[in-house]
Amino acid sequence: MATVNYRQIILEQREELALNNTTDYVQREKKEEISTGTSLAQIITGVRRCGKSTLARMALNDLHYGYVNFDDERLSRLEATALNSLLEAVYSVYGDFSYLLLDEIQNVEGWHLFVNRLLRNNIKIILTGSNSKLLSSELASHLTGRYIPVELFPFSFTEYLQAQKISVANPFTAKGRGLATNYFFSYLYSGGFPEIVYNEEHKQTYIQNLFDAIVTKDIIYRYNIRYIRTFREIALWLTAHFSTEISYNRIKNIFELGSENTAKNYLTYLEEAWLFVTLSKFSFKKQESLRNKKIYLVDTSFAELAGESATENTGRLLENTVFLHLIRHRIQGGYEVYYYKKDVEVDFVIYSKRSVSELVQVSASLSDEKTRAREIRSLVRASEELHPKTATIITINQKEDIKTEGIDISVKPVVEWIFEQQNKAQQ
What we know:
Blueprint: H1 6-19, E1 41-45, H2 52-59, E2 65-69, H3 83-94, E3 99-103, H4 111-120, E4 124-129, H5 137-140, E5 147-151, H6 157-163, H7 174-190, H8 194-198, H9 203-223, H10 228-240, E6 244-246, H11 248-254, H12 260-272, E7 276-280, H13 286-291, E8 293-297, H14 314-328, H15 330-333, E9 336-341, E10 345-352, E11 355-362, H16 369-386, E12 390-395, E13 400-404, E14 407-413, H17 414-426
């Protein structure tokens, strides 16, 4: 077997890195969560191509650091015992360094032992990975608390505006809100993957190839899925059912799986690879919360894979986008997100400090009287049990305050709500 020339691999990776200058890129909101002064390993996880390594390089921009990309076919079968030889090659290329960026580290079995040794030698580590299992209790326990998690998603709406070099002077005026809404529709239908935002020309092909890479490389190969065709069909079926409640039993029956546990495992794999994000039902009984899920796309661009018209799905796309905005800031904001369903449904329950701080309902429009009555009734009934501090209905462009049955409901246009939330996160 030929000897692997690790130094040549690191040299070529460094040349490729030099071609992608991060100074012209969007300054990601998550950059503030990365500290170059900490002695803890920092783990950036997120879906493929959402900008994880770019974010890490932004944080390390003015520092001397080493770099290894494990999403390289020449390192695909690297064993933990070879990591020392690889480290020697990194030193031979970069010289002495105090920082080390390791891309897609989950591709190496036993990576945590290597990282622990580097931390003991006072090397500051930033890891990226496209598998959320990196943050599971099983792997995180190997770092014995010596890590900081950072979750990265494709561009938010405000990052999208920055990438498009669009400035909204004041989104709280009629003109500013109208212009921002126009841009929001483009974002809603196109999604936030950086490469699509910068170049929409080949969007459909790009999204299809990305979806296939995630399903094949990150799941089917990694977990040795036996029934490949069935698994692909389930993944596609789920893209058509975003922003809806799902049942393991229903998936089992539709695709004739052997058990609900198989359906649960399949969905877990898809979620670990960040293709989907699930939301639990709010309940004071933990087991009930675990049994019920709603499913959302990690980016709205994947919705078109189901072959449906984006404009026909505006309401569900809006709900998906609001969900993504809420979970982007949940760690930093110190809150959890759920959905509520009993005799009525509420899209999002914001839970913080052992109480419900807000109920959030999403509806593209309240112009239809039946829709309006249903959304208000849902908030009123849920408020009777949950006693939230505030209640909000997010729409495309409607704005008003509603007082009814002892609660105050604030109806807000989505762009205004997003900018308000952004301002709060920056405070």
